């Protein structure tokens, strides 16, 4: 078992190196700082589960440093060292969140005993997390349904790379299941008990994307009232998912490249880099090689990300999966809508297997949910299916969300038709940024068509 990391903050050099030597011999990873500023700098760069903190420091006092440490990472255990007899200080430290206190001169056996106790607690918390996640993973993996040879290949690639840390790009048309693949990779990885943080690069306005990803310091810009951790920091030890990576503006692409190379980030307005241990997985439904040729995506970043490329094929190229997916979603929506529909009529199945699904699995899922809601009998019949020729225009949905979305979708189509499909013009009439419009066009699988909006 790896022992935890301990940061010793103590200004007396002799005392510090004595403690450092002892703890290293015990197998702990040890960091040393002689004042508050040095301690914070180290703390932000490396991971320490426990901080051994002298109450009296040259540039600050132990209590305020304790608060700062807890603010950066509330999970950190702090052991406060106070002068002999200053019991008020010790009580104050415990109130402020210290786990233990020791008085000088330090009884080394007592110190080791207390550290061991804290360490065990840390492991227990972690194991608990792992256990919870494992159960959730089992549940999750049942959400990945397939039968086709093509998806079998995808799935075995997922299993092979999950345990590695390699960066990868998941590509495929909208709705094919890229996010399902991502969830599988994370769930099967060693990082599974740590966060999986998802960032949709197309949905976040360009101006906010950088601070979302990297965080900011208090006062970094107007409105930055307090420091905020970015998604990369939140994903530490886990996985970050950069969805719609093709939408990252060029300037940010170079910053991202730096993060991948250096394994560290810098908060906006920050003065020093922060180490992060994050696995990066990106997804796109664009052709990134094409974007590289056009100069809108950095070639070096592309090669850095594309260590492994997982291509999820469109549903029309793996029709064997359709029957299984139909049954899977039928079950899912029976539960959700408290129905007990037994199956699909042969005719309905025929229609659904023959259909081409421009919106892929998501579209199939929407069709099934809608039919489950509409159907009066105990089988879904072809009457419960939408007109699939019109359906080819994009996804439909049910419920209030579906209504809003289909309304939004028709407004967008109308604006596009009126603007002769010039996106800048359509975006202006809709009051959307061009980027948001592009995102929505993709989301709703809107395809340029000669037909008027309907
Ligand atoms: N193999 C599968 N088994 C079960 N459900 C699936 C499968 N593939 C996709 N789905 C479901 O289909 C829907 C769309 O999948 P997902 O969101 O992963 O697509 P995507 O490729 O990320 O799409 P987009 O490009 O629009 O982001 C989700 O509800 C997902 O759960
Ligand atoms: Mg997705």
Side by side, the strands of the main sheet go 2-1-3-4-5
Helix content: 40-55%
How confident is the prediction overall: mean pLDDT? 87
Identify low-pLDDT runs: 391-398, 450-454
Which CATH top level class of the largest domain fits? Alpha Beta
Structural class: alpha/beta
Q: Give the strand content.
A: 5-15%
What Rg is obtained from the alpha carbons, in whole angstroms?
A: 27 Å
Bound molecules: adenosine-5'-triphosphate, magnesium ion
Could you explain how this protein is built, in words?
The chain has four domains: about 5-125, Response regulator (Rossmann fold, 3-Layer(aba) Sandwich); about 150-315, P-loop containing nucleotide triphosphate hydrolases (Rossmann fold, 3-Layer(aba) Sandwich); about 315-390, Orthogonal Bundle (Helicase, Ruva Protein, domain 3), CATH 1.10.8; about 400-445, Arc Repressor Mutant, subunit A, CATH 1.10.10. The strands form five sheets. A five-stranded parallel β-sheet has the order 2-1-3-4-5, with helices on both faces. The protein has a five-stranded parallel β-sheet with strand order 7-10-13-6-14. The longest helix has about 35 residues, at about 110-140. With about 450 residues, it is α/β, with parallel strands linked by helices. The protein has 19 helices and 16 strands. It has helices at about 15-25, 35-45, 60-70, 85-95, 110-140, 150-160, 180-190, 205-215, 230-235, 250-260, 290-295, 300-305, 320-335, 345-355, 360-375, 390, 400-420, 425-430, 435-445; strands at about 5-10, 30-35, 50-55, 75-80, 100-105, 170, 195-200, 215, 230, 240-245, 265, 275, 280-285, 310, 345, 380. The termini are far apart. The relative contact order is 0.08. Mean pLDDT is about 85; it is low at about 390-400 and about 450-454. Magnesium ion binds near residues 178, 179 and 243.
């Amino acid at each position: 078992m790896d022992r935890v990391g301990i940061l010793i903050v103590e200004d007396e050099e002799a005392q510090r190196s004595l403690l450092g030597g002892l703890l290293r011999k015990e197998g702990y990873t040890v960091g040393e700082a002689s004042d508050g500023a040095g301690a914070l700098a180290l703390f932000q760069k490396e991971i320490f589960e426990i901080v051994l903190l002298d109450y009296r420091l040259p540039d600050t006092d132990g209590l305020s440093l304790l608060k700062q440490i807890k603010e950066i990472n509330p999970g950190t255990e702090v052991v406060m060292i106070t002068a002999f007899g200053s019991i008020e200080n010790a009580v104050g430290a415990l109130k402020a969140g210290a786990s233990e206190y020791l008085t000088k001169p330090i009884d080394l056996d007592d110190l080791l005993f207390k550290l061991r106790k804290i360490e065990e607690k840390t492991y227990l918390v972690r194991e608990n997390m792992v256990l919870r996640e494992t159960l959730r993973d089992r549940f999750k993996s049942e959400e990945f349904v397939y039968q086709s040879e093509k998806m079998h290949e995808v799935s075995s690639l997922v299993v092979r790379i999950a345990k590695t840390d390699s960066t990868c790009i998941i590509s495929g048309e909208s709705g094919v299941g890229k996010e399902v693949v991502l969830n599988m990779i994370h769930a099967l990885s060693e990082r599974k008990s740590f966060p999986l943080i998802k960032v949709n690069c197309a949905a976040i306005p360009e101006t906010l994307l950088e601070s979302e990803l990297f965080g900011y310091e208090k006062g970094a810009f107007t409105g930055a009232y307090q420091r905020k951790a970015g998604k990369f920091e939140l994903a530490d030890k886990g996985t970050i998912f950069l969805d719609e990576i093709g939408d990252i503006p060029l300037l940010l692409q170079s910053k991202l490249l730096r993060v991948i190379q250096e394994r560290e980030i810098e908060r906006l307005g920050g003065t020093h880099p922060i180490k992060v241990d994050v696995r990066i997985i990106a997804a796109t439904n664009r052709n990134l090689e094409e974007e590289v040729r056009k100069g809108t995506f950095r070639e070096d970043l592309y090669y850095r990300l594309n260590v492994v490329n997982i291509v999820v094929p469109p549903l029309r190229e793996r029709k064997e999966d359709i029957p299984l997916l139909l049954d899977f979603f039928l079950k899912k929506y029976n539960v959700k809508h408290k129905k007990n529909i037994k199956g699909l009529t042969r005719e309905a199945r025929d229609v659904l297997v023959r259909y081409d699904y421009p919106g892929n699995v998501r579209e199939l899922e929407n069709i099934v949910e809608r039919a489950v809601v509409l159907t009066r009998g105990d089988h879904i019949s072809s009457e419960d299916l939408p007109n699939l020729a019109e359906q080819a225009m994009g996804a439909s949905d049910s419920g209030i969300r579906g209504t809003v979305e289909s309304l939004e979708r028709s407004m967008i189509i109308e604006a596009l038709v009126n603007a002769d499909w010039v996106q800048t013009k359509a975006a202006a009439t809709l009051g959307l940024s061009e980027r948001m419009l592009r995102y929505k066009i993709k989301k709703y699988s809107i395809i340029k068509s000669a037909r008027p909006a309907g």
